[in-house]
Fold these 3 entries.
Entry 1:
Amino acid sequence: MANNPGARKAVRKIVRRTEVNKSRRSRVRTFLRKFDEAIASGDLTEAKTAFVAAESELMRAVSKGVVHRNTGSRKVSRLAARLRKVATA
């Protein structure tokens, strides 16, 4: 348990940041799900717009520190590969 004022304040800050990060992570997952649904439907134009939105949201999460830079890049790369696979098929 936090015993001094600085530690108590740190706990309060952590609680606030956790809520913000949780909502950002949830937002990223939503955009990834929309991309998955667009790929599953087979609509290429919808998949491309969903990819752009998902990439943007992932990179925003990276810039905010919610997701590590390499993780964000890896996820974007895998999304792009899936998009290319659908585009060629």
Entry 2:
Amino acid sequence: MAGALPLADPAPADGLLPAVAATAAAGRAFGVYVHVPFCRVRCGYCDFNTYTAGEVRGTSQAQYADQAIAELRFARGVLEASGAPDRPADTVFFGGGTPTLLPAADLVRTLDAIRHEFGIAAGAEVTTEANPDSVDADDLRRLADGGFTRVSFGMQSAVPHVLATLDRTHDPARVPLVVRWARDAGLDVSLDLIYGTPGESLDDWRRSVDAVIAERPDHVSAYALIVEDGTKLARQIRRGELATPDDDLSADMYELADDLLAAAGYGWYEVSNWATDASHRSGHNLGYWRGDDWWGVGPGAHSHVGGVRWWNAKHPAAYADRLAAGISPAVGRETLDGAARETERVLLATRIREGIEVATLGAGGRHAVAGLIADGLVDAATALAGRLTLTRRGRLLADAVVRRLLTAS
């Protein structure tokens, strides 16, 4: 099961936001995230808030679209009553779980509700995640016809034994098919990879990256495997059934991916993300990294408006019960103080290619710049021009860079 929700203040039953949040929201970009918490199989490495059909009691996948739509209606009322600005969604992202376990008609119906309650900005990016074995050509065409513009496939690896270790069930040979079907439907395509799986060699990883490049997606994500407490993978490693991921090998894998992707015309724009050009960067994820506002729909989903963050009840049945009772599905809330917002700003802005302006850092952060240049962690020319941008070595040590910017004296 997924980890516990954060400790914070109880969220009010009416969901109303403090006036400070409504005021701060003016002029900020706005996104909508829809969490679909269902999976056909629970992957051994995953600690997301997801459930297989046998784990859900008190609600069902068939009821889920209506519940998400009920929260969207509730959200519209909360924002209006709180005095927040009327903003169309600049981005929409259906994540999970596996959103495409729901019928395409349910996903489109939920997107229509977003359009009705908030509006969707012209040219908005509308993404759904999908597993290669969870969609066919008709599904993708229905999604595109319904307003989706982009699909992000959880490929993870092209190597069968790596997929088996991760408990991924799709056949790697299906990836070219779903990419072609998505292209035929007019959808942009992202392919997601994981590296550092126990038993995965550098040659295995090269095979996966080469397979991605062969499909010419618009966007590529590559994330290092993290062993999360409480997962099947963590138990297997603790029992000695699988080796602990090797940090040095993972670093080699990152550098290999960056080399291969760069040679194929992909530019990094966030530590773990590459795109063919700026127009194909994930606008929704950039909204998170830039500290924009979003409403998160679904069990365990997190939201942020004007410096106030809240999160919903985790279990689908508890989430559904709160909506049926006409109260907010949110169970916890916090208002970020100035120090917390600054920490998050530095943490997130440092990870993206545009970086962070030196002049906006505190005295300690500005003092740290010379040492970061000397250690090859930030680009010297860009830093001297007033903006910090990570070198590749800096990307590998991004957390250390952030600590130095926040703690230097």
Entry 3:
Amino acid sequence: MRHPGRLEQLAMCVLVLVLTGISLLSKLPCTGPPPPGLTRAAHIGRSACWSDVAALWTPRDLGLHRLPYVNGTFTSHPLTLTGGTVEYPTLGGLWIWLTALPVDSARGFLVLTAVVAGVLAVAVTLLLVRLTGRRAWVFAATPPLALYAAYNWDLLPVLCTVLGVTAMTTPRFRSSPWLRFGLAGLAFGTGAAFKLYPIMFVAAIVLAALLDRDGRPLGRRVAQASAALGGGLLVPLLANVPFALLDLDGWLAPVRFQAERATGASTLSVWYWGLLPWSSSGDPAFQHRMTALSTAATALGVLVVLAVTVVLALRRGRTPWLQSAAALLAVYMVCNKVDSLQYVLWLVPFFVVLRVGGWWVTAYLLADLAAFVGWFRSQYYGAIGQTALTWADQALAVGIWGRAALLVALAVVFLRSEPAVQQWSEPERPPAAPHDASPPTHSESIRA
């Protein structure tokens, strides 16, 4: 695939900024009062202007500019976090606190967050261009950025994920696997300190360090796996241990919040929608069982993907760590008790760096769009008193079950795919035995 020239890269970056601007403009109406004659719920549903960024400003006391996880409090009835603490890992909470410092309103906070999101999106785009050339258009020119760039803070772990892939595949690190695995682990671990999911990718590269058959002695493999694991744990430990020592209750507040968070309609997960009407009853015992089931299903799915990765690595002599990371993400998204709309941003970079058929990409983006439109429009109809089944409810069902089915299929498709990274690098192979002079096939030379 031809590498895009500077003008084409500039066009990508401009488009990314335009889509981020569209995301901001679509969220701004929710920072003001609703139009006359509409309740706030109806206004949000009709304009689809919801953003976690603006919505958390008042309930989490972000305007007080208090250091999170030290001054925050948690209550279970009603389920609330206050004092600047948010329901995200500590590095994410610190980022939110820092970006809230220069502003004094939800509107200003949303604008500043969107500006930062534009910078992050450009950085992700340029990294993907470096990795895959023109395939970066899949990230730069599809709806998720317009819908979700200013929805939450998910571009932070997305950037860290792409940085980890870059570290693992850049040729300059080929002769220094310690640095390669350590930097990749550091990038994925940093992403996990923003949102948890990138920590799974550390497991994939640890398997690559241990199982790739490239002539390294066992001791060196273990040491390089330790570098990956150490890099993956370093930032989460640095971001968590000080807060745990300063105020254990404050540090545990978001953990307790997430543990007690109900699996409601807004989670958009198969657990709520598949277990109706029991899931909507509000029964605490049933909510606890759903949480336990989703946690067990997620753990089982992760273990299955890792087991398949080990089998493929032993069979091929090369660990498909990139394919494994994508499959781990797909399993996590479908099995977790929350599958928020903006999670599609996590997935899109893997559509770029793996050779996945365009049909799969298009199908998932359409299912996500159906979930987005169906969710907000159904909320609008509910807010104005509509009780009959509408087209919005049907679109929402298509989105929820379409995404779930496609994620299950994509977990398999990802594991069977080939990398699209242009500068794909492998550790040096040991010299071939004299009786084995046959060169590797093209597919074997790029398989990871």
